[in-house]
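Justification of resources, computational component.

The compute hours requested in this renewal are based largely on the per-chain cost of generating structure records like the one below. Each record pairs the submitted sequence with a full structure-token output. That output is archived, and it is also reused by downstream analysis tasks.
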Amino acid sequence: MAVFDDLDVGIIKHLHLDARAPVKAVADGLGVPESTVRHRLGRLVESGVIEFVALTNPLRLGQPVWVMMEIEVQTRRIRQAAQDLSRIPEIYFVYITTGSFDIFAGATFSNNEELVDFLTNVLSKVEGIVRVNTRSILEVHKRVFKFVPKIDGPKPQRKTARRHRSS
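The structure output for this chain reads:
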């Protein structure tokens, strides 16, 4: 597990506010040299802590059929099924989960006919799938991917004021 400090968290929080902020603006906001932020940001990106993406809304991109799939899989096939599902272009995320289903996945389509074709001709060929429950996304009210790491290491001690006694 990676170790994070106040500066890492500060950089992440600044980028949550504006992911396109120049490194200099982030450095100025944190009161540190630009080179320090550039180095730390490079480390956070290289380690996969931060990923820069253009987050789009498929409902506004001509993909009005947006589904979440709860997929039950034979236990011995869960990882292989997840890998197989990850290679399907219509699917944009695949998570192995706990609970009443084994894999949670999302996909988008131009229309219901594409969805039916996908379910019957593509998904049905993934070995080990026992059952699929689909849920359609009708509207998006909140979609936030802002996670902040906990700061590692000892927490700063609060200094207590000493009282001076008068003699």
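The beta strands are 65-73, 91-96, 103-109, 129-136. Residues 154-162 have pLDDT under 50 and may be disordered.
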